């Protein structure tokens, strides 16, 4: 038989000082989820320039002056876009690692270590993000 | 200790589909990131290069499935987060309708983009 557990109202962010590791994990998961779905809509909007490129002059595609190529390369030449991409990677990696942790929690595996696995998700996210910086910042200057 | 901590109702289709799409997304998202940031750099992306990848039917179908599962996972996640916030009654129905329409529109637009990329327009 399932037991009830009164966690209090986690949606009341004014209580943040009382939050434990599991509650922070919950908030970070929602926050990163919102960022990722927001990005997905933006991503498809940018990639929609492919429709214009495909309908345009084939010579422009050969010369790499079509709207799709110039839009993406133009964005990628901006320092701030590269910084945002590193941020996106961090958000995605945390969401994946914490998602795996949530699956374990759902299955009741390692419940007593759920706080430790949250900290591990954070540390691993930091390591993967820092390790990816040289690749993401390659060929761009401020 | 409680036995159930999930935001989703236990045993629901939403819960199961969220997990199934998550498992698929982990693999394909990792592939997508490596493909477009480490194998090919995002700064070097051209329409011709994108077309060469998208002309491959297997790659095309993987990307379309990636779009559909990603959209479902995101929209379903947002819906459940809002229900968790205490959404009820008419508000809940309106939010479900708006999110469903936004999801369908994103998938339709994304498939159109994918077809254009493959040069099949």
UniProtKB/TrEMBL annotation, chain A:
GO CC annotation terms, alphabetical: membrane
Gene3D superfamilies the record matches: Fumarate reductase/succinate dehydrogenase, transmembrane subunit (1.20.1300.10)
Keyword Manganese: no
Alphabetized Pfam families for the sequence: Sdh_cyt
Sample GO molecular function, one term: electron transfer activity
Protein location: Membrane
Alphabetically ordered keywords of this record: Heme, Iron, Membrane, Metal-binding, Transmembrane, Transmembrane helix
BP term (GO), one: tricarboxylic acid cycle
Annotated InterPro entries: SdhC_prok, SQR/QFR_C/D, Succ_DH_cytb556, SuccDH_FuR_B_TM-su
Membrane-spanning segments: 33-56, 77-97, 117-137
Name listed for the protein in its UniProt record: Succinate dehydrogenase, cytochrome b556 subunit
From TrEMBL, chain B:
Keywords, comma-separated and alphabetical: Heme, Iron, Membrane, Metal-binding, Transmembrane, Transmembrane helix
GO MF term list: metal ion binding
Top-rank taxon, per record: Archaea
SUPFAM superfamilies: Fumarate reductase respiratory complex transmembrane subunits (SSF81343)
GO cellular component: membrane
Short name of any one Pfam family annotated for the protein: Sdh_cyt
Transmembrane regions: 20-39, 59-82, 94-120
Main localization of the protein described in the UniProt heading: membrane
Compartments where located: Membrane
Coiled coil stretches, renumbered: none
Protein's recorded name: Succinate dehydrogenase subunit D
Organism, scientific name: Natronococcus amylolyticus DSM 10524
């Amino acid at each position: 038989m399932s037991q009830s557990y009164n966690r209090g109202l986690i949606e009341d962010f004014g209580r943040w000082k009382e939050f434990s590791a599991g509650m922070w994990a919950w908030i970070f998961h929602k926050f990163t989820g919102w960022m990722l779905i927001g990005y997905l809509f933006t991503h498809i909007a940018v990639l929609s320039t492919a429709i214009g490129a495909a309908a345009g002059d084939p010579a422009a595609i050969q010369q790499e002056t079509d709207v799709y190529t110039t839009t993406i390369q133009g964005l990628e030449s901006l320092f701030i876009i590269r910084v945002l991409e590193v941020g996106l990677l961090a958000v995605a990696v945390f969401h994946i690692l914490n998602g795996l942790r949530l699956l374990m929690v759902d299955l009741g595996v390692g419940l007593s270590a759920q706080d430790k696995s949250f900290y591990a998700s954070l540390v691993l996210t930091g390591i993967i993000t820092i390790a990816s910086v040289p690749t993401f910042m390659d060929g761009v200057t401020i | 200790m409680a036995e159930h901590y999930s935001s989703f109702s236990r045993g629901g289709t939403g819960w199961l589909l969220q997990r199934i799409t998550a498992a698929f997304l982990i693999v394909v998202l990792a592939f997508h990131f490596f493909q477009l940031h480490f194998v090919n750099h995002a700064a070097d992306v051209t329409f011709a290069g994108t077309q060469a990848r998208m002309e491959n039917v297997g790659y095309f179908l993987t990307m379309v499935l990636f779009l559909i599962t990603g959209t479902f996972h995101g929209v379903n996640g947002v819906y459940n987060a809002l229900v968790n916030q205490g959404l009820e009654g008419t508000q809940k129905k309106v939010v479900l309708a708006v999110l469903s329409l936004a999801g369908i529109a994103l998938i339709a637009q994304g498939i159109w983009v994918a077809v254009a990329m493959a040069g099949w327009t």
